[in-house]
Design goal:
The protein is mainly α. The protein contains 12 helices and 6 strands.
């Protein structure tokens, strides 16, 4: 696509007016409408300089809507020989790397972008906040714009919320439920069963989420090392940690009475314990 050339004052004024309108639409979280507007303007513009501005505007709309990789990809595809567009793409790349603490185009980025796209494709709505990647086991949520009082800035459909009920509906969860065990942390047990099931299913609907799920939870108190626990001597924290570990052990034992092949992984992914359950086979005497 050829984007660079001469222009007229009138066309530039129209483009600037359109950009102002796009900013208003984006500010009201109407990114879809803003994107449609700029696409229509691109189709109707024969002026090269206007098309440059419109291309940059489209990249910014995509960026502001959270489509970071798509924004850069679009600008790179249309601006190969256009300095202004190419510079904008480079600027966005550098900002992405600074914000997310990872190289642009890395495998980690691809997984993270796939997770964000998966959320949106399945009904999650957010535009004034963004999830940021700090490292393999650290994430954060940041606001991108000012939030108004009582404003709804995040909507997650029920289908994307992991609940204990989802764990009960799995084959393993159904077996634990049928055993009528007296579990103190039953909701966590069922959530862990659900997560375990999805981790080991390469075709899981939840795969984009599982791909970015933290693998190391050593920063959680119950996984502190002996050396780290020594630093807590004299505080009530140590006794709280001991209590939680004992509760986990009790839950584990209760289930192990009815099931074999119950195992807690050495590098736990979840707060309770990773469960591999298989119904105990009765041995004939």
């Amino acid at each position: 696509m050829r984007l660079y050339g001469k222009t007229t004052g009138l066309t530039l004024l129209r483009t600037r007016a359109l950009n102002i309108g796009l900013e208003c639409l984006a500010g009201l979280d109407r990114h879809g409408e803003a994107l449609e507007e700029v696409d229509n303007a691109l189709k109707g513009s024969a002026n090269d300089a206007s098309r440059v501005q419109l291309a940059v505007a489209k990249g910014e709309v995509l960026w502001n809507s959270g489509e970071l990789a798509k924004a850069v990809g679009y600008l790179e595809s249309v601006g190969e020989n256009v300095p202004a567009v190419r510079e904008k793409a480079l600027e966005m790349k550098q900002l992405y790397e600074k914000v997310h603490c990872m190289p642009y185009g890395s495998p980690a980025m691809e997984k993270f972008e796939a997770f964000t796209a998966w959320m949106k494709e399945n009904g999650t709505r957010f535009s004034k906040i963004e999830v940021r990647y700090y490292g393999p086991d650290y994430r954060g949520v940041h606001t991108m714009k000012e939030l108004r009082e009582e404003e709804v800035f995040l909507t997650i459909p029920k289908s994307l919320i992991i609940t204990s009920q989802k764990g009960k509906e799995t084959p393993l969860g159904a077996k634990v439920l049928k055993a009528s065990l007296d579990l103190n942390w039953d909701y966590l047990v069922y959530i862990n069963i659900f997560l375990l099931t999805q981790f080991h299913d390469p075709n899981s609907f939840w795969k984009p989420y599982m791909d970015v799920y933290p693998r190391d939870v050593s920063t959680f108190p119950i996984f502190y090392t002996k050396e780290e626990r020594k630093l807590l001597q004299g505080s009530v924290m140590n006794s709280h940690i001991d209590d939680e570990i004992e509760e986990v052990r009790q839950e584990y034992t209760k289930i192990a009475v009815s099931y074999t092949h119950l195992r807690a992984h050495e590098t736990g992914r979840n707060l309770v314990c990773r469960l591999l359950l298989e119904k105990k086979k009765k041995k004939k005497k």
